[in-house]
Amino acid sequence: GVEFSTKALWNTRLQFSVSPVPSNTATITSANPFFQSLNGETSQKVQFSFAPYIGSENQRTYNRVDVFQVTPQINADLPWGDWEANLTGNYSRSTTNAVVTNGLDTAYLNTALSKGIGGKYLDPYNINLTNADILNKVTSFKSGGVALQKLVQSQLTLNGTVFELPGGPVKMAIGGKYDWEGFYSNLNVGVIPGKPYRGSHRVVTSTFGEVHVPVIGDGNRIPLAYSLDLDVSGRIDNYSVFGNTANYKLGLSWQPVEELTIRATRGTSYDAPSLADTTPNQGRIQLQLYNAPN
């Protein structure tokens, strides 16, 4: 017989957080009318905060993650004993939008501190004495971005009994898998309008097999060997970006008595980094907006 099924998922997650406004360290010179010399020096490095003006916790972060996934599956009985075929597909897509508001525009800040803007300067000693227009522009910095991740997969597996042993049926499974992965990002309020998405994609093709051998079972039990099973599996993965990996696993399961099972395994594995991990920060969700000084 043939059986078809599918699963679908749609999920939206919203997150909002408020964090403390960070302090700043900058250099003020005698060109700034608010400069206060202590020992005749003409410049000072000062540490200050905008918290007295905008509040101690006013940096806000908004995140929205939308996830869609559909996974169809077909199971079919094959005309060879208990063999069956399984074909599975998957399409997944996630979009992440992140925006940080009420950040500090450091470029505008440094200009207002050192050269002034329209004859108005920043006072780092007493922030509230600074012109309100300057303060509003310095504290209206926004950052954020959008990231898009896609995954397309298909897998075919065949499994069934190869032959019988006194301990039970020897089972085998063989199959192949195809993965297409993509990660892309863009500025959500582009500094350069229409700037295309940046990112990368890769293709992973895999072949795998597994054999389960019941060395001792119902038909040939002996003292201190209620059952003994051997499992051997192997997998070869080909990554379009860096080549092949081959891994194996050996497993042994021994039951000296029915109430006690002792297992041992040995194998290798390879966990490839995701595209999001290997994409440079400047290509992910980095955004900076500046108010250009007059």
Tally of DSSP helical segments: 4
Counting DSSP E segments of at least 2 residues, the number of strands comes to 11
What is the overall pLDDT average? 87
Task: Strand order, main sheet: write it out.
Answer: 1-4-5-6-7-8-9-10-11
Shape category: elongated
% residues in beta strands: over 45%
Between the first and last Cα atoms, what is the distance in angstroms? 75 Å
Proportion of residues in helical segments: under 10%
Order of helices and strands: EEEHEEHHEEEEEEH
Question: Whole-number radius of gyration?
Answer: 32 Å
Major sheet description: 9 strands, antiparallel
Q: What is the topological layout?
A:
Layout: E1 2-19, E2 24-29, E3 43-48, H1 51-54, E4 59-77, E5 84-103, H2 106-114, H3 132-138, E6 141-165, E7 168-186, E8 198-216, E9 227-239, E10 243-257, E11 260-267, H4 275-278
Antiparallel strand pairs: 1-4, 2-3, 4-5, 5-6, 6-7, 7-8, 8-9, 9-10, 10-11
What does this entry show, briefly?
The chain is mainly β and 294 residues long. The chain is 8% helix and 57% strand. A hairpin with a 2-residue loop joins strand 6 and strand 7.
Structure overview:
The protein is mainly β and 294 residues long. 8% of the residues lie in helices and 57% in strands. The protein is built from four helices and eleven strands. The protein has helices at residues 51-54, 106-114, 132-138, 275-278; strands at residues 2-19, 24-29, 43-48, 59-77, 84-103, 141-165, 168-186, 198-216, 227-239, 243-257, 260-267. The strands form two sheets. The chain has a nine-stranded antiparallel β-sheet, with no helix packed on it. Strands 2-3 form a two-stranded antiparallel ribbon. A hairpin with a 2-residue loop joins strand 10 and strand 11 (260-267). The chain is elongated, with a radius of gyration of 32 Å.
